[in-house]
Amino acid sequence: MSPADLCQQLLNAMINADRAGAADIVSEALACGFAPAQVISDILDPAIIRLGKMWEEETMSLAQNFVASKIAEDTLISCLPDLGTKESHKGKAVIGNIEDDFHSLGRRTMGLFLKAAGWDVIDLGNDVPAEQFLEKALEVGASVIGASAMMQTTALNIRKLRELIDREGLQNHLKLAVGGAVFNWRPELVSEVGGDGTARNAIGADELFTRLQAEVKGPGAP
Amino acid sequence: MNSYQRVMNTLSGRPVDRVPAFAILGAYGANLTGCDLRTLYSDAGAYLQAQQALQSSFGFDLVLAPFDFSAIAEAFGGETVWSGLQTPNMRRPAAPTVARALDLRLPGPGDGRLSFILEATRALAQLYQERVPVIAVLPGPGILPSLLVGLDLWMETVLFEPGAARNLLSYSGDFLVALGNALVEAGADCLVFTEGMACAEIAPRALFVDAVLPHLREILARIDGPKIISSTGGSINQTLDLLPGIPGVVGAVAGSRDDLVESRRLVGPHFNLLGNLDNLAFASVGAEEMQQMSLDCLQAAAHGGHFILANSGGDIPQATPAENLLAMHGAAVRYPATGRLQ
After folding, report:
1. What is the chain A residue with the closest CA to B82?
2. Touching check for A103 and chain B: CB below 8 Å?
3. Is A17 near chain B, with CB under 8 Å?
4. Interface TM-score (ipTM) > 0.85
């Protein structure tokens, strides 16, 4: 069976919320001699990209996205059993729900996908004050912070983090990714709260964080 | 014709003088009375005063019993976070696991701050009896367990441990029946159940059908009074055809992204539809645009009756200009209703 066929099967399992079926597909791929890295790059990654497109087209629910993130995590654990201890290759990302926001599902899903993509994710949890985001990012040397909010009222609290980053003169060293349902409904909120970028869903977080990190490390950066 | 007659006639398909209109205004009342939100959601007198102020300022066709799910989470042992900007929210659920949730003492409908909700409902019913309907909002049976264990764990349980999910639905369902009936006894004229699991953004139709629908039928059959299912702002057209016929359910709130014409096609001519103004638009558009959006809803869905102009989500944002609420109300006043009194 070709990687494309297996990818299609894995995607179907994600769409149908069939976690056990997905595990079987990954086991079969490994048993057939696919290297773990190839399972990730040629089977899991393309499935995730296609899933992201479906999410953008609003044909995926939160439940399906949740299962997909679990399947991605399961696949990574199968392919990279030392995932938890292995050094990440993309960099460090500090994520959390902004102060007063307690809707953690989207953030947790984003964390799983970032981890799956090779980021070292430091998840600060819910209700994180701006100061704590910045302190942790500086402590671990992250160049991207991901602040999540579900509601407009709490999304506006991200402004404090923007102001703090700017006040410390770190705007060229530390980028602010923002996300959550409200940013999809009101894209203008991204600039209103001072975000450097957003992704429509957890699956798109890797691309966003990679782009923002490149801006920090790019030739134009001080 | 007063608001009570207008709403009740609409729900039962009798003639009305105009289409009823209402916006979910809870915390917004504190803007008018200068009350802080902790007092608003703890003191029945303060809450009543805020609803009176809203009623006299905007004249919507309902008054709202306290819409505060954190009081439910609290009654089970969860922790609430208070904010100056929005209704209180659950900070921490009562139980970290489903097994622990099943060991929790089942609260009574008057425990903790739930007693404030019942007291405020009684006071509203007494003041507005048969003049303005009193609406109470409850979590839908399928989403209620998220208030006990958090949304993440509840979603994981529904998806991967159907047996445990059924146990928790059954356990929490008994509480919902008791609270729903207590609210009706306190004077609520209609109960709105916000069933997130019915929305396309939360769960696919098949999951709703398998994991939630049988439970929804069973629980709502045990609760008195007319009931409405709310989409909580999400798209509900994917499950809308399943709702007519559920015991006591007389209508549904369409989501702001649902096509109201399609909603009507899905439920037939005699089922009530409410909606479908976008909550966030209230704070971000001008009065003229708000009026046009309201007229668009009315033109799409009001011509055959059985329609109430309403917002689709929860509490209207605090930053909403009063002019926008008046523009919405004004659109309903000007729109001619089918079966209009001569």
Report:
1. A100
2. yes
3. yes
4. no
